[in-house]
Amino acid sequence: MENITIGQIAVAIAFIAALITGGVKIKDSVKKWLTNTLKESFDAQTKQIEEVKRTVDNIQTQLKTVDMENTKNFLTTEIASLKRGEVKSEIEMQRFKEEYDHYINALKGNTYIKEEYEKLKAKGWI
Predict the structure, then answer these.
(1) Terminus of the chain with fewer CB atoms < 10 Å: N or C?
(2) Within a domain: residue 14?
(3) Residue 58 is inside which H or E element, if any?
(4) CA–CA distance, 63 with 69 (Å, rounded to integer)
(5) What's the predicted TM-score (pTM) here?
(6) Is residue 1 part of a domain?
(7) What is the dihedral angle through the alpha carbons of 111, 118, 123, 71, rounded to the nearest 10 degrees?
């Protein structure tokens, strides 16, 4: 220990500083490489996720359309049969009212079906 010179200490400090700087540079290079590699994978997955979201949105739109059309078909058929004087059972009338409520509240339907429903209700048929 007695023979250590200031020059040797300076060389040791410079060596340690070079090791630290080299380590930081290696870490930055690895980080950049990993980021670029993972970014490509994530970009591809993001595109796939967006495509799935679009598909789900399309399916939801189609389901709502099918629901609306089927509900209108059922209500129209039932209204026509009531107008012809067909007698419905209590359970058939309950189902008719459930579908009508679904049409008005969930589907926000408000057309000729509502007008016909109100006419039938005014006559006491519903």
Answers:
(1) N
(2) yes
(3) helix 6-83
(4) 10
(5) 0.65
(6) no
(7) 60
